[in-house]
Each structure stands twice: as C-alpha cells, then as structure tokens.
C-alpha cells in the first residue's frame, strides 16, 4: 500500500472519499463496542472457577494450624508467602500478601510516604513539597491518578522500547532532591508491552539520586502474562539494588487480578526485609489481617509456581488470537501507508498505537461516533495530556474476536481519514 504522503491531491481526495463511505457504512451498523479497559473476558474467568469450591467445609486450616476463618496473620499465610515469593522472585521474608488489589497497596504505600516518610525515620514527603515523580510514558493511567490525587507532580519520561530513557531518568533523579521516585511496569508494560532490558534495570538500581528517599514503584502486574512465545526475562531489581547498595530503593507490587479473579484475587508487595517491616508498621493500623481463606484457596488451587505457569497457558490460548487479530487488521488496513506505528507485544494486556502528531484525539472521537469506544485520548500520559496527541491504547482482552476485528477496522479507517485530513 502506498504511503499516503506520496499520493497527489486528487488521489488523496479519492482515498478520503472511499474511507468516508466505509465510515458511513460502519455508522449504519449502530455498533456498541467497548475496548476501553484491560479486563479479563468471561472465558478467562472460567479458568479459575475451581477457586470457588476448592475448599471443603472442613478445610480452613493453614499448614501451621492457623484457622483462616479468624482474624490475624497481618502479612499473609506462610504457604501463600512461599508460593507468591517464588512468583515475584523474592524471598518469603521479602513479601506481604495484602488484600485483593495491588493498586490499593501502591496507593497506600505512596500515602505512607507522603504522611510518614518513605522508610523508617525518613521525613514525610508532605514536609518536603514539592514532591515529583518520574512517569515513563505512555503508562498506566491509574498510577498517574494516584500521584495527582496525592499532590505529587509528574514528570513524563519517554519509553524507548526497552524501558525508560535512562539518560533522562539519571539526569532528573541525580539533579533534583524533589524527585522522589519513578513508576515502572517492567514487564509487558501497560500499554507499550515492552520489557525492561538488563541494562535499564541495572542503571535504575545503581544510579545516583539526589533524594536519599528515592523509591522505585516496580509494578510487575504482568509477570507471567506471556502470549505463548515463552517468557521474556526480566532482571532481578531487588538483587541489583542489594548489590548496588540501594536495597530500600525498590518496592515491588503484583497481583493475581489477571490470573484468577480481577478484584477477588491476591495482591502482593515486596522489597527488602527492612522495607517490609516499615510496611507492616503502617499496615497494622489499617487492618487486623487480610482474607486468609482467599489465600488458602489460591494455594490449594495453584499448588506451586508451575501450577501458575500451566494456568497462564490457558489464558494465553484465549488471548493470543485476540492480539493476533489486532495485528492482522492493523497490518491489512494500515501497513505501508505511513500513518501509524504499533507495538507487537509478546505479553500483557495492551497494544499501543502511535498516530501522527495531533491525530489521536480526533481518531478516537470518530471511532466513538461510529460506536467503538476506546481508552480516552491522553489517558496514557500524566494529567491526561499526551503532548503530541498521538497515543492510542488498545485493550483487546474482553470483547469477542469478531468485535475486536470490527473495532480495529473502524479505528484504522478513522486513523487514515484523520491523517489525510491533516495532510490538507
Ligand atoms: N498495574 C497495572 C500496570 C495494571 O495494568 C493494572 C490493571 O490494569 C493494575 C496494576 C491493577 O491491579 P490490581 O487489580 O491488582 O489492583
């Protein structure tokens, strides 16, 4: 397909008219397709339905005799800690099994830092305003919303395909004591799908920061969420930090929201033993203990890390065709036209499209007017402001395959139309 920039004005007009006709046909279908959020689909949730009856009426005791029906066990059952420490690549004393949402743990951790300081004896961030956070972008909108909610200024940093632009990160963190941390989704990042390289992980661990209380919020939400081509390898941030003499720097997060049930799974935070002690010191004021029956259920259901891996193959079998459909339609509709670039993720929940500058918002609006709802323009950037107005996040997990194909056709037509209009 020719690059649209190589078309002469008459050819451009003809191409636009043909696209407008297709767009009109889409509108006449009165579609109502929702591609806004990365939710598991019902078939994925069915994979975990055994969790609902894997405990019998008599099986409510943990291995150490703890009655899981009762209060207690602030940081998790020993067997749940053993299983999910292995999952997170940490030692059992380096993990807390919290409630059911890692986002809650991230929000609470940041709130503790603001109110009490990021570590034992540290000065509260609230007493050090302004506080700034590095936000590799495009990124996860809810991370950015936490910063906004807590009055933390966000500094966007570009992603380079193997993690953030480390020259920029080192400069910003090295020069300014108000830069207190960075958000990272190191594996199958939301939404670009990229995996941080060993060199990026090593530099994050070893870089000099002006703020002594600088923290890496390491959200490994998609740790085992491969799409079938084998797990990507991610370097061990905690080990790198230990070696670099920055053991308190990383705070790791994860959950089974996209393994078992979204909203009813298990959430974890991990870090050095000292960081976990600090977290327990605050957690103990907000809960008497987590839902241990759910922890017991998860341990019984999955058994061991290999059980989690096997289970994830079931998810991949459902998700891979959906991600393939996104690639197939984008390739068929847009390849060679020079109007957009898109990622080819090997895991995670998203595909990320970059249009020409200034085209994303209008393309998303046109798609909505044809019945295809996408993540709102700008959402993947701090303050919902995409400085180049070009990023579109695609979340193909929830809708059925036929809807995904149709939604991507609509979006491709909208992107090309808007690009032609921009050419004049
Ligand atoms: N972190 C990332 C990067 C996500 O994409 C999501 C959900 O989309 C979450 C965290 C939410 O996790 P949880 O359900 O454990 O709160």
Keyword list:
12 strands; binds pyridoxal-5'-phosphate; globular; alpha/beta; 424 residues
Structure description:
With 424 residues, this protein is of the alpha/beta class. It contains 13 helices and twelve strands. The chain has helices spanning 9-28, 42-46, 78-88, 102-116, 141-149, 166-175, 198-206, 237-244, 273-286, 292-302, 305-334, 360-369, 401-423, and strands at residues 33-35, 95-97, 132-137, 153-158, 179-184, 215-219, 250-255, 267-270, 340-342, 351-355, 372-374, 391-394. A seven-stranded mixed sheet has the order 2-8-7-6-5-3-4, with helices on both faces. Strand 6 (215-219), helix 8 and strand 7 form a beta-alpha-beta unit. Helix 7 packs across helix 8 (237-244) and helix 11 (305-334) crosses helix 13. It is globular and about 75 Å long. Pyridoxal-5'-phosphate is lined by residues 38, 101-103, 140, 185, 190, 219, 221, 255, 257, 262, 267.
* Element order: H for helix, E for strand: HEHHEHEHEHEHEHEEHHHEEHEEH
> Taking strands numbered 1, 2, ... along the chain, how are they ordered across the largest sheet?
2-8-7-6-5-3-4
Helical stretch tally: 13
Mean pLDDT comes to 96
* Secondary structure: number of strands: 12
Oligomeric form: single chain
Rg on CA atoms, Å? 23 Å
Taken as a percent bin, the fraction of beta residues is 5-15%
Query: What would you call the structural class?
Result: alpha/beta
Helix content: 40-55%
Largest sheet: 7 strands, mixed
Categorize the overall geometry: globular
How far is the first residue's CA from the last residue's CA?
Answer: 20 Å
Small-molecule components bound = pyridoxal-5'-phosphate
Q: Uncertain segments of ≥5 residues (pLDDT<50)?
A: none
